[in-house]
Design a protein that fits this description.
It comes from Pseudomonas taeanensis MS-3. The protein has helices spanning about 25-30, 80-95, 120-135, 150, 175, 190-200, and strands spanning about 15-20, 35-40, 45, 60-65, 70-75, 100-105, 140, 155-160, 180-185, 205, 215-220. The chain is of the alpha/beta class. It has a single domain, classed as Aldolase class I (TIM Barrel). It has an 8-stranded mixed beta sheet with strand order 1-2-6-7-8-9-10-11. Strand 9, helix 6 and strand 10 form a beta-alpha-beta unit.
Amino acid sequence: MQLDGRLQTPDRQLYDIDLYDTPQKTIGDLKAVGRIVICYFSAGTWEDWRPDATAYPTAALGAPLADWPGERWLDIRRADVRALLSKRLDLAVSKGCNGVDPDNVDGYSNANGLQLSAADQVDFNRWLAREAHQRDLAVGLKNAVELLPQLVDDFDFALNESCYAYQECDGYRLFRQQGKAVLIAEYRSYNSKMCGKAAASGYRLQFFKRSLKGVGTPCN
């Protein structure tokens, strides 16, 4: 998983890389040597640096994200917002991505400024999964730990950030019971105890710097 900086190419089976910043040729080259390419984009927030930023109506923008300048929560209930997000999935298809990693699909549990409910979030996440599947894209569920029981049937894999740090990894057993991959990113130095827990649960764990500019360190 690398979302910033010049792309490095370690010996990994799966790459999770930025949808917009990664050229189509790079994706094709990775697939040509047997890599699975998952393309990252934010599904639940507006980012002022993206090429489609001006297409989003001001009324659809919610509260800013405290730690991410230029980013605001999106009103995922709106049809015009969903239509724009559909174009991001189309872009993933045109670039040759095997699947997508839509981020920020847990806005309801944050100070979003839009009064999003858990029911709103489940409806949106299921819509997102359907749209991805209609395009023959695999789709991962990012975080949204409280919604795992409702969404495990809709998503093909799960990707979590820091669930060991927050002691909330156990819920992902639902994905493993269906034979689906669980990918965990911890933003800290290598920890063999965490690796042991991940192995016992059938999860794939790597350790990253929060910037996600470089190569992560997988469990041995």
